[in-house]
């Protein structure tokens, strides 16, 4: 090979390498705190597909990289994003009790019959009432959503009436539920989903309040022999998808706009509707497995639970009003939007 060809090949190699380095430098990588199992549908079919869409709509200029293992525990998700320890996170508001009082609006019982519709209604309520009052002020909110309603899953003794709560050790994940069941004699025990298997296997708890899907999705249904379904849920989780502000400001206005077009209500619906779909599947599996031990709560149990949550609702109204939120209007708006969306389906 003559010297001219050698020089030409060398120049081409240098130019190719230079282009690759330039392309890499033009890509902003966002670190996502992967604390949930990566193969769980909420990640695989929900958030990871959303991350793929971010890369697509920004033409590769923004890419999300899930961590190989949790960078921070789920209780630290939100603060880790605000502080820049991670760039992007998803998780329940209820893992940090008292930090997000406005989110408790959707955590009270009997309100979530379709998590897809309720998630869009919640996103609209957040944008209209909560965000203007400073909720999530220190991060960029990509979406808020709700999960399917939680039921009562017990190991050795079912809860069919209010008296059955007496001295029952029940794992909970929101302060709203904790205070309510404590008032009727139960012993609430806080803990994340990652701790639930140990709690059940070691007898630390007698049962858990959880959506059917998470019970089967986290493969802890083998410990459960009785389910009491609460129509509309004993609770629902309020969840967030948030991004660090400094990282957001490194994204061009054009790409920011493109990302927001696939976020907000669209992302809320994606997550909520997936929850609803998979919860119905899990419900059928549990009904087939447990037979008569899977029961819907009767009217007397619902009435008793309504009374148990009454004080919590009043306390929450006071907290929300102290933050300057017209909470009556917010509640009415949330219910109206949920009903409209369910009727439109």
Question: Descriptors for this entry?
Answer:
345 residues; alpha/beta; D-Maltodextrin-Binding Protein, domain 2; 3-stranded antiparallel beta sheet; 12 helices; TRAP_DctP_sf; signal; DctP_fam; TRAP-type C4-dicarboxylate transport system periplasmic protein DctP
Give the SSE layout:
Layout: H1 3-25, E1 28-32, H2 41-57, E2 62-66, H3 77-83, E3 88-92, H4 115-130, E4 140-146, E5 151-154, E6 169-172, H5 175-182, E7 187-190, H6 193-201, E8 207-210, H7 212-217, E9 226-229, E10 238-243, H8 245-249, H9 253-261, H10 265-290, E11 294-296, H11 299-322, H12 327-344
Parallel strand pairs: 1-2, 6-7, 6-8, 9-11
Antiparallel strand pairs: 3-10, 4-10, 5-8, 5-9
Helix pairs in contact: 2-10, 4-10, 4-12, 5-11
What does this structure look like?
- The strands form three sheets. The protein has a six-stranded mixed β-sheet with strand order 7-6-8-5-9-11, sandwiched between helices. It has a three-stranded antiparallel β-sheet with strand order 3-10-4, sandwiched between helices. The chain has a two-stranded parallel sheet with strand order 1-2.
- The protein is built from twelve helices and eleven strands.
- The chain has 345 residues and is α/β, with parallel strands linked by helices.
- The chain is globular, with a radius of gyration of 23 Å.
- It has one domain (27-345): 3-Layer(aba) Sandwich (D-Maltodextrin-Binding Protein, domain 2).
């Amino acid at each position: 090979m003559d010297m001219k060809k050698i020089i030409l090949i060398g120049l081409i190699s240098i130019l190719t390498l230079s282009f690759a380095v330039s392309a890499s430098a033009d890509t902003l990588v966002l670190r996502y705190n992967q604390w949930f199992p990566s193969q769980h549908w909420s990640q695989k079919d929900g958030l990871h597909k959303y991350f793929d869409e971010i890369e697509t709509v920004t033409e590769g200029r923004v890419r999300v990289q899930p961590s190989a293992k949790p960078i921070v525990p789920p209780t630290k998700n939100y603060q880790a994003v605000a502080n820049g320890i991670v760039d992007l996170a998803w998780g329940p508001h209820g893992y940090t009790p008292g930090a997000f009082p406005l989110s408790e609006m959707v955590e009270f019982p009997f309100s979530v019959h379709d998590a897809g519709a309720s998630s869009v209604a919640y996103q609209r309520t957040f944008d209209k009432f909560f965000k203007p009052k400073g909720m999530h002020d220190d991060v960029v909110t990509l979406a808020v959503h709700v999960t399917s309603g939680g039921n009562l899953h017990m190991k050795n003794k079912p809860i069919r009436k209010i008296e059955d709560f007496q001295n029952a050790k029940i794992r909970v994940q929101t302060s709203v539920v904790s205070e309510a069941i404590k008032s009727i004699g139960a012993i609430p025990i806080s803990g994340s989903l990652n701790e639930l298997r140990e709690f059940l296997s070691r007898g630390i708890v007698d049962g858990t309040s959880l959506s059917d899907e998470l019970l089967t999705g986290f493969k802890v249904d083998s410990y459960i022999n009785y389910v009491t379904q609460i129509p509309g849920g004993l609770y629902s989780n309020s969840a967030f998808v948030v991004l660090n502000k400094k990282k957001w400001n490194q994204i061009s206005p054009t790409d920011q706009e493109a990302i927001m077009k696939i976020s907000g209500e669209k992302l809320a619906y994606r997550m909520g509707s997936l929850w609803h779909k998979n919860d119905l599947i899990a419900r059928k599996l549990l009904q087939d497995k447990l037979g008569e031990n899977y029961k819907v709560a009767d009217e007397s149990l619902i009435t008793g639970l309504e009374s148990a949550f009454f004080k919590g609702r009043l306390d929450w109204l006071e907290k929300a009003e102290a933050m300057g939120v017209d909470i009556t209007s917010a509640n009415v708006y949330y219910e109206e939007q949920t009903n409209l969306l369910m009727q439109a389906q």
